[in-house]
Design brief:
CATH class: Alpha Beta
CATH superfamily: Peptidase S8/S53 domain
Number of helices: 8
Strand order of the largest sheet: 2-3-1-4-5-6-9
Number of domains: 1
Order of helices and strands: HEEHEHEHEEEEEEEHHHH
Structural class: alpha/beta
Helix content: 25-40%
Strand content: 15-25%
Low-confidence stretches: 1-11
Length: about 300
């Protein structure tokens, strides 16, 4: 936990005072618990599954992801602060209490985000969700078409590479999309507990079935401490689900500094400013997220 805390705090120290203010981030996941660390910045909540109006998270995964992006750390005296503690968050519940769901619900959530993006100032979509069924492993699958449509409308779509590595072609859908920014884990050499299973070298690796190199970028994901779905609580989770909001939060800072950037501009900036770790391209993509370099003029 100490290392995870250091990762988050070091990320914040290199942010030039930026907080993601004015930037909306939508998170497709298990929902969001109204933790005090969100400080009234939950802009909207849409429950695809049960149509409940008020924010809730009966699993905890979505809350954890949201707080890596935008928790302000007030319940930990600033110790566990997210990447962009001033951004607004729109949580879309597409996964159930077990963290499972259907592609149709993810697609419904994406449609809702596209329809309401201007209303809630949404610039970024975080998807720490992935499918590993043969039916969905094609670029023509409904999930890939769904994220591509969101990208084509100008949204910055950031997707987890999944935890099916280390073999080739183990990036989950919709991370196989050639348009979106797919995120792998930079520290998956550490053995961790992911969904009750001990795992190591788990980060999804490319290429995709269409020979597209993936992921685009990697970020820390081992033992990340973030908000739980309890009052004032925190917990540690691991996986590319945690790496992805690291990148989404960093992009929120970038868009606060350069609000006119397009999603293509963001993708190019990530490529230019990533740190090459000398790992295989289908493991690290362009390299490690470096927040300081990303934000430098």
């Amino acid at each position: 936990m100490n290392q995870a805390r250091q990762v988050l705090r070091c990320g914040r120290e290199d942010t030039e005072g930026l907080t993601g203010s004015g930037v909306g981030v939508a998170v497709l996941d298990t929902g969001i618990y109204p933790h005090d660390d969100f400080g009234g910045r939950i802009a909207a909540f849409f429950d695809v599954l049960k149509k409940r109006p008020d924010p809730y998270d009966d699993n905890g995964h979505g809350t954890h992801v949201c707080a890596i992006i935008g928790g302000d750390g007030r319940c930990s005296q600033g110790c566990y602060q997210g990447m962009a503690p001033g951004c607004s968050l729109t949580a879309v519940k597409v996964l159930d209490a077990r963290g499972s769901g259907f592609a149709s619900d993810v697609l419904a959530g994406l449609r809702w985000i596209r329809e309401n993006r201007k209303r809630f100032g949404i610039r970024i979509v975080n998807i720490s969700v992935g499918s590993w069924s043969r039916r969905n492993m094609s670029e023509n699958s409904a999930l890939v078409r769904g994220v591509d449509a969101a990208w084509d409308e100008g949204l910055v779509v950031v997707v987890a590479a999944g935890n099916r590595g280390p073999g080739r072609m183990t990036v989950t859908t919709p991370g196989i999309s050639r348009k979106v920014i797919t995120v792998g884990c930079s520290d998956d050499y550490k053995e961790v507990n992911v969904m009750g299973s001990r795992m190591i070298d788990y980060s999804g690796r490319g290429p995709t079935g269409a020979c597209v190199c993936k992921p685009e970028i990697i970020a820390p994901g081992a033992g990340i401490v973030s908000c739980s779905n309890t009052a004032g609580g925190y917990s540690a989770k691991s996986g590319t689900s945690m790496s992805t909001p690291m990148v989404a939060g960093a992009i929120a800072l970038l868009l606060e500094k350069y609000p006119s950037m397009s999603n293509r501009d963001v993708k190019l900036r990530l490529r230019e400013r990533a740190v090459d770790l000398g790992l295989p391209r289908n493991q690290q993509g362009w390299g490690l997220l470096d927040v300081k370099r990303l934000l430098e003029d």
